[in-house]
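Much of what follows relies on a compact textual record of a protein's fold. A record is reproduced here so that you can trace the correspondence yourselves:
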Amino acid sequence: MLHIAKFTFNPFQENTYVIHDGSDAILIDPGCWNVPEQHELEQYIEENGLSLKKLVLTHAHIDHILGNSWVHSRYGLLPEMHKADLPLLRNGPKQASMFGVPLDPSPEPTHFIEEGDVITLGGHDLHVLFVPGHAPGHIALYNKEQKFVINGDVLFMNSIGRTDLPGGDLDTLLKSIREQLFPLDDDVKVYCGHGPETTIGMEKRTNPFLR
């Protein structure tokens, strides 16, 4: 069984996730930006006897990459992401300056994730969905057996991701939600990049942006 741990980090209140089965683990969107947050994440990994196998980014906005450099130095992992977000990753220092937060530049990927890829963790499959709109290379990770999707900043409880940042597009975002997320079963749990969890069915019924 896959276990999901959520950590809320940095001034943007970004949700970082650790998914694990047994000792194997994947880290998603490391937003840890200072020593106490890094220690909190490190402590969870150590106390649960986890071995991080991958660092995966749903997208490369600043709040989701603040911990990339630390993760690389501490665990030797390079980020894996969709290549359409590489310009955003490279623009990290400029994003950081714009928002007034410190950033050690992120290492660059040597492996890119594409739509339709399957990431395997402990015998469980995470299917890669391509969901651009909030960011040009945004992906989500869907597990069919346990019925959950980690969708970054695409869909939120009663809201959607902002599209006023570079590379954002509202029509593309709405299309991604309707064509990639809403076909999932209503009881699929949605883990968001900010805020609480929701379900696909709840957002179909109540999300004011998608009626």
Q: What stands out?
A: The first strand starts at residue 3 and ends at 9. The chain has a mean pLDDT of 97. The chain has one domain: 3-210.
